[in-house]
Amino acid sequence: MADYKITLLKGDGIGPEIVDQAVKVLNKAADKFGFGVTYDEALLGGCAIDATGVPLPEETVAKCKASDSVILGAVGGPKWDDQPGNNRPEAGLLGIRGALGLFANLRPSVIFGPLKSASPIKDEIIGDNMDIMIVRELTGGIYFGERGKSEDAAWDTEKYSVAEIERIARVAFDMAMKRNKKLTSVDKANVLESSRLWRKTVIEVSKEYPEVELNHMYVDNCAMQLVRNPKQFDVIVTSNIFGDILSDEASMIAGSIGMLASASLSGGKLGLYEPIHGSAPDIAGLGIANPLATILSVAMMLRYSLGQPQAADAIEAAVSEVLKTNRTPDIYEDGMNKVSCSQMGDLVCEAL
Ligand SMILES: NC(=O)c1ccc[n+]([C@@H]2O[C@H](COP(=O)([O-])OP(=O)(O)OC[C@H]3O[C@@H](n4cnc5c(N)ncnc54)[C@H](O)[C@@H]3O)[C@@H](O)[C@H]2O)c1
């Protein structure tokens, strides 16, 4: 029987509450599909600053590297807002992505049928099964390029190597092959030198994937098309900064931030799985956080890191079923049962 070693980085704010629900569901899936899971916990973010003085202790990196995958809640909160930039909770997040070599960020934007009315976009524009996968480069580009400031200026540099573009392009083409074989590469090649290299390199890699239909789109147009006609997209691949912005835009099309999962992958099996939302300090400890984004992140982990696609499908189906009649306050609609964070976890387990 397969036995997976999972490191839990519960983090701050609502992090511990939502990760506990994800663990419940993963244990249930393990029982049902016949695999084992053992857990280890490690500190990241504000809780790590409190305990050790730094947001990413070395012990955390070692534990994550020794595991099959990592589940992360969220980090940050007003308590640590006065920390210097390189010692803020969010620095721990950038640090762990770098330390684990997580260069590919997968952000699905999916609308669950029962939640269609939560989308700000008209029904006829979304259609019945909007399902976009944004593949964002995560460890290069302007967030990591040379930066500086003088008295009256400041600068950041967008720099990509061919190797960095090739590896993220391959992740995106592989993803497109598993889906509808359609890939949109987003850049700003009409203005930026780095984008011209991006486009040229993606075209080169496309020769390895003759079955995938590739098109290119400028980022400003893509921002518009996501709202005008989101159904045209299947997989989108783009740079760190463009992906950061476009994936937040795409997530709003899906309605609620409490529903959206993400995966960050290295070349190997190890991945880091987390909801896209933050630590929600305004509702931390109230027991009302929506755990579904974290539970859906577990489904992604089963699919992309642990090789248990049937368990992943079953969790997603269970979430869809539960949403027909049950809602946490953030997605509540009249006539539904209003449930707490832990009740939502229990309901998904029952539906499984
Ligand atoms: N990956 C991460 O760990 C991550 C990501 C974004 C922000 N942050 C940090 O989180 C802290 C709070 O940031 P923010 O307020 O801008 O963003 P946030 O995502 O934490 O919260 C935004 C709003 O959405 C609500 N919300 C978020 N997740 C929810 C859930 N699961 N269920 C119900 N409601 C939910 C919150 O209550 C809040 O009203 C900051 O310190 C920020 O730096 C961390």
Order of helices and strands: EHEHHEHEHEEEHEHEHEHEEHHEEH
Q: Beta-sheet strand percentage? A: 15-25%
- In CATH, the topology of the largest domain is named Isopropylmalate Dehydrogenase
Low-pLDDT regions: none
What does this structure look like?
The chain is α/β, with parallel strands linked by helices. It has 2 domains: 1-111 and 256-352, Isopropylmalate Dehydrogenase; 120-253, 3-Layer(aba) Sandwich (Isopropylmalate Dehydrogenase). Helices cover 41% and strands 20% of the residues. It has 12 helices and 14 strands. It has helices spanning 15-33, 46-52, 58-65, 89-99, 123-126, 162-178, 193-206, 219-228, 240-253, 292-304, 309-323, 341-351; strands at 3-11, 36-41, 69-74, 104-110, 131-137, 147-149, 154-156, 182-187, 213-218, 235-238, 261-265, 271-275, 326-327, 337-338. The chain has a 10-stranded mixed beta sheet with strand order 2-1-3-12-11-4-5-10-8-9, with helices on both faces. It has a two-stranded antiparallel ribbon with strand order 6-7. α8 runs parallel beside α9. The two termini are 20 Å apart. The relative contact order is 0.17. Nicotinamide-adenine-dinucleotide binds at residues 14, 74-77, 90, 93, 257-258, 274, 277-283, 289-290, 293, 330. Nicotinamide-adenine-dinucleotide (NAD) binds next to α4.
Features:
single chain; 352 residues; alpha/beta; Isopropylmalate Dehydrogenase; 2 domains; ten-stranded mixed beta sheet; two-stranded antiparallel ribbon; 14 strands; 20% strand; globular; binds nicotinamide-adenine-dinucleotide
